């Protein structure tokens, strides 16, 4: 599997590492791998890995697209994540047809969500952070093969 980036956020890089971890846990129940400092693969500022306990009391924004029945499953996963990590996830839902333009507008306007569900990463190439450095390359194994085929 290839590396998969996530969107950056309006938070600091440290905050984004927390938000990226939250996104994976909310969407896939993936876990964080705490450790020392690192940089993202594309270079940039050092980013400190965080313990999931550091999320307690935080509010994360999640821009999500849906045109189908997956919304309730996502809400259920978010509720479990909120309970486990003592966080609040503000879910903003847009139609699939609007996700790219909505996210691009938010990014260019300085209102990036902490987490975004996207169908393609190419439109956001300048705003991506590879998560391998924070979660280990093995985190991709938590996704079904169908998503990468």
From TrEMBL:
Top-level taxonomic group = Bacteria
Tell me which UniProt keywords the record has, alphabetically.
Signal
Please list which residues make up the signal peptide: 1-25
Q: Check the record and name the InterPro entries matching this protein.
A: SBP, TAT_signal
Protein's name according to its UniProt entry: Extracellular solute-binding protein
Q: Please report the organism this UniProt entry assigns to the protein.
A: Brachybacterium epidermidis
